[in-house]
Amino acid sequence: MQIHFTKLSGAGNDFIVIDNRNQSVHLSTAQINAMCTRRTGIGADGLILIEPSQRFDFSMNYYNADGLPGSMCGNGGRCAVYFAHSTGVPSADQGRYSFEANGNRYEAEITGHETVRLHMLDPEDFRNAVAIEGFSCHYVNTGSPHVVIYIDNRKLEDLDVYGFGKAIRLRSDVFPEGTNVNFLEITAPDSISLRTFERGVEDETLACGTGAVAAALMSFRLGKVSSSTVKVNVRSGDTLEVAFSEDLNSVTLTGPAKIIYRGIAEVQNDGL
């Protein structure tokens, strides 16, 4: 089976995006995992199917690299919108899209060349910090579950994000459904640097949109930054901008979304 796809990068998060508005593409967990596997497949942090919606401009069905359906992906949502824009998916409001993901409505607009602003859901479930693996772990859900950890006496660039991130992610006694794990340092009153271990990818990624939102909101809530517009510097070298109201609602995530290449994948019954 041949499948046309587009590879996109959202500040370093990379995605396989497929136009499935005719609903002809049906992929198994093994096939998605094979396509996302690096070196032997296309390679990506996740796969996105752009599908029809009865209420909005399109529906985004997101799968993690492990092939399983994922919760909301902020950079994936921005890439989905840029793909829709570049492919000519019609929208009710030119340059602005509404779409559904996991039963929720999202809006986004193209704000410049290869730049997309995504309007996020309001955060939920802020929790008091708990001690895990020697870290003080804060928690919030920004469409996906996130632990936020401040690195005060260590260098972020030298931190074993994979080792510590995996250990915390697997603490099912604290996080029964798992969690993403963010390590950050404050670099200015309106700026942070961030590294993220992502659930479903099971590794550190070069960026995480919902993680950037979680880190920015938590930092403002705890008084670690003073601005309600926070620049989040991610592992790829790109910068995401998170803006919100002082009551931590009306959240937007803005950053680059780029088409890397288009191609055709030969997908077998058991993968690539």
Question: What's the structural blueprint in terms of helices and strands?
Answer:
Layout: E1 2-10, E2 13-19, H1 29-36, E3 46-51, E4 58-64, H2 74-87, E5 96-101, E6 104-112, E7 115-119, E8 124-132, E9 135-141, E10 145-150, H3 161-169, E11 180-188, E12 191-198, E13 203-205, H4 209-221, E14 229-233, E15 239-243, E16 252-256, E17 258-266
Parallel strand pairs: 2-3, 4-5, 10-11, 12-14
Antiparallel strand pairs: 1-2, 1-17, 3-4, 5-6, 6-7, 7-16, 8-9, 9-10, 11-12, 12-13, 14-15, 15-16
Structural notes for this entry:
The protein has 272 residues and is of the alpha+beta class. It has 2 domains: 2-120 and 257-266, Roll (Diaminopimelate Epimerase, Chain A, domain 1); 124-250, Diaminopimelate Epimerase, Chain A, domain 1 (Roll), CATH 3.10.310. It is 16% helix and 42% strand. The chain contains 4 helices and 17 strands. It has a 17-stranded mixed beta sheet that branches. The longest helix has 14 residues, at 74-87. The chain is globular, with a radius of gyration of 18 Å. The termini are close together. The model has no long low-confidence stretch (mean pLDDT 96).
